[in-house]
Recover the amino acids of this structure.
């Protein structure tokens, strides 16, 4: 692992819903290095969404420290976090979140609207264009979302996310709304961008998606259950365990029937 | 393209914060596309503003036209005119200034003529109702005015045919008369085709020779009715016909419009001296210059403008509530978009400003539409015959004020929805269905 770009120390998050107190995260320590591709997995209620919000600087921990690129973001104010999100983090969402009336290029340019350091009109346009070219949509610049397929929409969203060369690219179930062929296409794109040097964190519950990452972090009940390389993870994954258990049961059932 | 090229750019990151011209251009562009995408809704929302601005624009245009017309008429009538009236001061004991002390005297008119260098001419005016008889007609209670020759200059009504009174007419109290066209018609004295000149009429039983015909008053445009028959006789004659108390006023003309102010002061001075008023005594007369009437008209016009402004205020309020409503709908419809914008780095202030800009864009567009309609209404006003609105036009200040007010409504009523949008939590907003 190269230098750590993300350092989480004792991150806890407590929500209060009515009289109930929900411990979404109960002390998470995690380091992610530059140019890693990490999958965060877990069942619903495991705290993976909360962890993603935390990593994406959308949320602040109740306790614990979060260093991003050497800066203590857990102590930052709301507006400072907005600046961090603008410059250091790119988001890819399950449902793309493109603005329907804007062209692909305008959608990609969106983060620059809130940036004071993105240069002039031409510089902004060129940067958005080159991001679109990176995701292979250089020929769909003026198309609106309703003129694009699901996979193309997600490519536009990825172009928007990598526009600012962020420290981390956060993807939340990026293939959740895509068929398997398109899923493979988008995962291949992620892999390519990762090879180009991008740090990528993918939150997913699909093992196929996790298998494309080099590292898999599993959460359960707000704690890290396992943090393994993809190969090791495959061997011990509950999915595999479950699959084997199912196989055994089926075999036993067949035997009994025979 | 990789992170290898990034450090130089990243070094500059975080230096400048704040919203750039690109933000404003984008925000306004998005506001316009939002309005365009919801054309019907936007139009209905802005209707209150459109109607409000259009109506006030039309009212202001009409008033502006009327004012221009009236003022130009005033100027053609001449701002050099003065009138002196008796005036019993308020708040002083009635016994100290009885009416007898306040009423004007011929000697005072003479004193003004002799002692005021800025007065070119003056005439006392007295009116008395008399029965008037011609050969064929008898009219009771007709107004007969006693005047001096300077009256023609002082009120601006020339003798069209025949001659004015001479000083001899005044000095010897000759029984001569001037009439106007209406009197010629009513008395049917134009028997030999020379318009009544040389005819005789009986005023209160006395025989008067008609020596001239006076032109119809110019004051028609102010709504003063001139169609009534008028008869003028030398003041000295009128004085003899009246017994004792009578109401008199003076009409005077200054040497030029520029000296009117001075002339007024001179008249006041001479009058006070004539009446032996002490320095702390109030005036027992009143000197009115035409500029006073102009000012009265102006204040009336601004009063009407203020009322129109109030009406518009109400319609802008109603329009503003519509704006607030539609912006709240917009914020709720675009919750996910707001979440996304915040996720990609929009601060609360940026979201607030963006939605405010959207509201302001809508109201300003409404204001511009209202101005265009108001202008069209103003143009059509100029074609109404006899309405004295030929000069109706929308003044520049009304244009600017309308835009500023529309923008103000956008800010005032867009603030609450924009604030609501800016407070949205990005996580919640992105989860919103």
């Amino acid at each position: 692992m190269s230098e750590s770009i993300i350092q989480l120390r004792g991150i806890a998050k407590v929500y209060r819903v009515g009289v109930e107190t929900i411990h979404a995260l109960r002390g998470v320590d995690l380091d992610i290095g530059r140019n890693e591709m990490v999958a965060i997995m877990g069942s619903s209620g495991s705290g993976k969404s909360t962890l993603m919000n935390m990593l994406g600087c959308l949320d602040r921990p109740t306790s614990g420290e979060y260093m991003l690129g050497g800066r203590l973001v857990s102590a930052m104010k709301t507006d400072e976090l907005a600046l961090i999100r603008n410059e250091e983090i790119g988001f890819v969402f399950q449902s793309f979140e493109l603005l329907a009336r804007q062209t692909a290029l305008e959608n990609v340019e969106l983060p620059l609207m809130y940036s004071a350091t993105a240069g002039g009109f031409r510089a902004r346009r060129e940067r958005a264009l080159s991001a679109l070219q990176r995701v292979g949509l250089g020929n769909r610049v003026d198309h609106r979302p309703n003129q694009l397929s699901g996979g193309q929409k997600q490519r536009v969203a990825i172009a928007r996310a990598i526009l600012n060369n962020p420290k981390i690219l956060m993807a939340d179930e990026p293939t959740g709304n895509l068929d398997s062929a398109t899923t493979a296409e988008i995962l291949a794109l992620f892999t390519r961008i990762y090879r180009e040097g991008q740090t990528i964190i993918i939150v997913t519950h699909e093992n196929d998606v996790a298998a494309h990452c080099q590292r898999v972090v599993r959460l359960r009940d707000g704690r890290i259950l396992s943090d393994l390389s993809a190969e090791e993870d495959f061997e011990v994954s509950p999915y595999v365990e479950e699959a084997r258990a199912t196989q055994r049961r089926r075999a036993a059932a067949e035997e009994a029937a025979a | 393209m990789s992170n290898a090229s990034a450090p130089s750019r990243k070094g500059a990151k975080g230096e400048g914060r704040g919203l750039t011209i690109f933000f404003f251009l984008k925000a306004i562009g998005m506001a316009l596309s939002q309005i365009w995408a919801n054309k019907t809704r936007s139009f209905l929302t802005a209707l209150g503003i459109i109607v409000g601005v259009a109506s006030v624009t039309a009212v202001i245009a009409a008033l502006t036209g009327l004012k221009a017309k009236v003022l130009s008429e005033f100027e053609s009538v001449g701002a050099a005119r003065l009138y002196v009236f008796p005036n019993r001061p308020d708040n002083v004991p009635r016994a100290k200034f009885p009416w007898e002390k306040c009423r004007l005297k011929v000697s005072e008119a003479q004193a003004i003529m002799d002692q005021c260098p800025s007065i070119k001419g003056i005439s006392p005016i007295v009116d008395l109702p008399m029965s008037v008889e011609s050969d064929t007609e008898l009219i009771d209670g007709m107004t007969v005015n006693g005047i001096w020759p300077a009256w023609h200059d002082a009120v601006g009504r020339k003798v069209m045919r025949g001659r004015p009174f001479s000083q001899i007419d005044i000095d010897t109290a000759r029984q001569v008369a001037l009439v106007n066209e209406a009197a010629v018609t009513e008395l049917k004295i134009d028997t030999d085709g020379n318009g009544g000149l040389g005819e005789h009429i009986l005023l209160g039983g006395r025989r008067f020779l008609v020596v001239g015909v006076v032109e119809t008053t110019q004051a028609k445009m102010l709504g003063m009715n001139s169609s009534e028959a008028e008869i003028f006789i030398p003041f000295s004659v009128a004085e003899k016909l009246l017994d004792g108390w009578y109401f008199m006023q003076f009409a005077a003309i200054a040497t030029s419009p520029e000296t009117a102010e001075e002339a007024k002061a001179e008249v006041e001075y001479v009058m006070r001296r004539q009446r032996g008023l002490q320095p702390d005594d109030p005036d027992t007369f009143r000197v009115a210059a035409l500029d006073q009437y102009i000012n009265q008209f102006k204040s009336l016009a601004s009063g009407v403008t203020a009322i129109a402004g109030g009406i518009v205020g109400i319609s802008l309020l109603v329009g503003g509530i519509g704006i607030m409503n539609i912006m709240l709908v917009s914020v709720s419809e675009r919750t996910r978009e707001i979440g996304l914008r915040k996720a990609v780095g929009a601060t609360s202030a940026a979201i607030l400003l963006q939605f405010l800009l959207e509201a302001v864009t809508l109201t300003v567009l409404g204001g511009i539409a209202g101005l265009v309609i108001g202008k069209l209404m103003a143009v059509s006003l100029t074609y109404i015959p006899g309405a004295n609105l030929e000069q109706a036009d929308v003044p520049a200040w009304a244009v600017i004020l309308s835009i500023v007010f529309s923008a103000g409504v956008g800010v005032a009523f867009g603030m609450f929805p924009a604030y609501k949008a800016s407070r949205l939590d990005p996580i919640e907003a992105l989860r919103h269905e």
